[in-house]
Amino acid sequence: MTVALCATALVILALLSEITWPTIDRKLDERRARREAKRRGVAPPYDPGRERRAEQRARELLKSCVNEEEWAMYRDLGFIRVWGGQAGLPADAARDLRGVPYAYLIYPHKPIVAYLPQTTTLLNEYCVEFPDETRPYGSARLPDSDDVLAKWMALKGDERRLIAEANLHLPGRQIDPKQVQRDIWRLGRWERERLARRAAADPAGPTSPPARPNNPGTLGL
Fold first, then answer.
1. What pLDDT, on the 0 to 100 scale, is given for residue 218?
2. pTM here?
3. How many Cα atoms occupy the beta-carbon half-sphere of 167 within 13 Å?
């Protein structure tokens, strides 16, 4: 019985080695290629699945950091709205729109767009970059969700500094204003549908949308 078990175990090990060794050998070859590329100062071989895996990890991190509404917004619409937090209003908006809060739309690898939600007036584009200095994927470009998270954290952590250091442009410099207006419209419809679903699921719950920040906004510039 012992001899039979040993023979069976050896056969299983042999079969497993035949199945797993090609994968191990390929991984070792890839590792040697990366080391050689790093030694020669050239880009490592392109892995088509690497960026996809990095983006998946970035999405999981983004989901764990933003609130439930912001994550659903990004998942469904591809961008996140962040309410502005500064006091006052820009001089050109204060004359007719005093007291209207402002907000930002955060897109992956595009400028942050500031606008007035109650009128959908576009204010400015703020161009900021958050390169990946470690370059683990052969490029300094962050995964899309990591780029959104970096902008979100910067706005939440120190909005004034981010706006002061960003490259300021008028609307339309890099993003088509019509696209932004469509996105604002999509966001409004998305919020109404979301509210309707909540009301249908809980008829006794609140029927009005959550209040916006009651402090007036400015971009500090």
1. 45
2. 0.66
3. 7
What are the residue boundaries of the structural domains of the chain, listed by start? 1-41, 57-201
- pLDDT tens for 80-125 read 999 987 544 444 443 444 445 899 999 999 999 999 998 999 999 9
Pair of tokens at residue 17: 């080695």
Backbone φ/ψ region at 88: left (φ over 0), alpha (ψ -120 to 50), beta: left
Residues contacting residue 34 through CB under 8 Å, at least 6 positions apart: 44, 45
- Indicate the residue type of 13: L
Looking up tokens 């609130």 gives 67
- Angle at alpha carbon of residue 11, lines to 8 and 13, rounded to 5°: 110
Q: What b/e readout covers 105-126, taking b as 16+ CB neighbours within 10 angstroms?
A: bbbbebbbbbbbbeeebbbbbb
Which two three-digit tokens encode residue 123?
């204010």
